[in-house]
Predict the structure.
Amino acid sequence: MQEYVSAVNVLLKVASGRSLDYAIGSGDSPLSRQIAYGVLRNFYSLSASLEQLVKKPIADKHQDVELLILAGMYSIDSLNRPAHASVNFAVDAAVGLKKPWAKQLTNGVLRSYQRQKSVLLDKMSDDREAVTNHPLWLLHRIERAYPDRAEQILMANQVEPPMTLRVNVRQTSRNDYLELLAGAGIAARSGALATTSIYLETPRPVDALPGFADGLASVQDEASQMIPNLLHLELGHRVLDACAAPGGKTCAILEAQSGIQLTALDKDAKRAAIINDNLRRLNLACEVEASDLLQHHPDELYDRILLDVPCSATGIIRRHPDIKLLRLDSDIDKLAATQKELLAKAWSLLCTNGELLYSTCSILPNENQGIVEQFVQDHNDARVLPINSDAGISTPEGLQLLPTTGGSDGFFFSRLKKIQS
């Protein structure tokens, strides 16, 4: 019962506009987390089923009851236990939510869902949101941008992502760490995009990974692990990680190249503190500043800048399914305006012959190719450098990776060089 109460409380926070990362607390069990993630991944299809099963919509003031029923539906579909157990636990959870009157409603709807599921699926076959479990605005944007790959993207967004590690090459090699994993009975394989990447066959708690506490490895998607190589770092370079928290990319840069002067910048002081936590575990050091890039005024210009801008995060929906509910179509233009402003500011901090790596975890061209294309048109001292890769989609502005089942997240990279104007 308690896992349903916990999952509903998480979902209520998301419904109020909080991110899933914020909503989940340390006291939430793995099962309650699974239920919350599952409801969000399948929100549109579950909601469409519920709409068919009730005579009238559940009142807004009883949103917790509605979410409890959705959690029960997900559990019937996906938990490895008898469906009747999921129904019974969900019914008991109505008492835990202090709404004992909802026991009968919850029981009736869930048992009807068990009996009528195939019929319900047939009835929603023309409901594109329910069929794809994506909001229409996002569905339309994906289909316009990737008419031949939209189905692949939508499917990848619905599966649980792999757990990917970054090996700390300052302390070990990928082959040696693979041997450590094998010795611990953990099946794993090498990634193809980054020489530091390892995919686990089954996700594990980090404290079960050999040498994790000592800094031998970190959790990071393989696409992000491409960044140090794309920066073309050299000894003595002054480097800025402009939107650095929580520090995964910062640490990857420091592991890949010693002898650089790196500043990690983030305007959120709490998130900037997490950068320091990661640096300590990995025995790394750099300057960390809790300040806004737009207010950053260094004594010297930088040789390399990583600008991983705030974005729609539409390339990492499988890790953050709350994005589908929290993000709006109108947000994209607002984000693009912020991205343009940050890129212009970062460019002013780059020395002549320096390089800037623009990146997002978005798959929407408005935030990626469109931003870079317009920037280069407006700046005669900017040139796009090629990115040689067999992965993703190469464009004149950079490289677009799409979310891949069993592979990397969706990510965009563009290398820009500042020339003498």
The chain has 17 helices and 13 strands. The chain has three domains: 2-133, 163-219, 224-418. The first helix runs from residue 2 to 15.
